[in-house]
Amino acid sequence: MNYNIVSYLIYIPVSVAITVWVASTLFKNGRLFLVDIFHGNAELADSVNRLLVVGFYLINVGYAIYTLQIFGTIDSVQVVMEKLSTKLGAIILILGGMHFFNLFVFFKLRSRANQTLQPTQK
Question: Which of 29, 33, 40, 54 is found 20 to 30 A from 110 (Cα to Cα)?
Answer without folding.
Answer: 54
